[in-house]
Write a structure and sequence with these properties.
The protein has helices at about 1-10, 20-30, 35-50, 60-90, 95-100. The longest helix is centred in the last third of the chain and has 28 residues, at about 60-90. Helix 2 packs across helix 3. It is about 70% helix and about 0% strand. It has five helices and no strands.
Length: about 100
C-alpha cells in the first residue's frame, strides 16, 4: 500500500505550449548562428508583411493607431514600474568589493 501512495504522489510534468516550444527553438537557433537566424527572421517578417498577415502602424486607421499606441503606453508604464521595483529591492554593491576588482 505504501508503494501505491508514493506512485500517486509522483510529479506530473506539464506539457509545454506551442508558443513555449517555438520560443525555445528560436533561442537555440540564435545561440547557434545569430546572424543567420536574424536574417531568416527578417525574411519571414517581410513575407508576412507582403501577404498582409501583419500590419505596420502606418497601414492602420487613426482609430486603430490610437488603440495600439495606448496599449504600448500602458505596457511601457508597467515595464518601468516593474523595473523600478526591482531596483529598489536589489541591494547596492558594497564598497569593499569594488576595491578587490581593481587591478593593482
Amino acid at each position: 500500500m505504501l508503494c501505491y501512495e508514493l506512485i500517486g504522489m509522483a510529479k506530473v510534468k506539464k506539457r509545454k505550449s506551442r508558443a513555449e516550444i517555438q520560443r525555445a527553438y528560436r533561442d537555440r537557433l540564435l545561440a547557434k548562428d545569430a546572424v543567420a537566424a536574424r536574417e531568416k527572421e527578417r525574411q519571414r517578417w517581410r513575407r508576412r508583411r507582403a501577404s498582409k498577415k501583419v500590419q505596420g502602424i502606418g497601414d492602420m486607421t487613426e482609430r486603430d493607431r490610437r488603440v495600439i499606441r495606448k496599449k504600448w503606453r500602458t505596457q511601457k508604464a508597467e515595464y518601468r514600474r516593474i523595473k523600478r521595483n526591482l531596483e529598489s529591492v536589489t541591494p547596492p554593491s558594497s564598497e569593499g568589493n569594488e576595491e578587490e576588482d581593481k587591478p593593482r
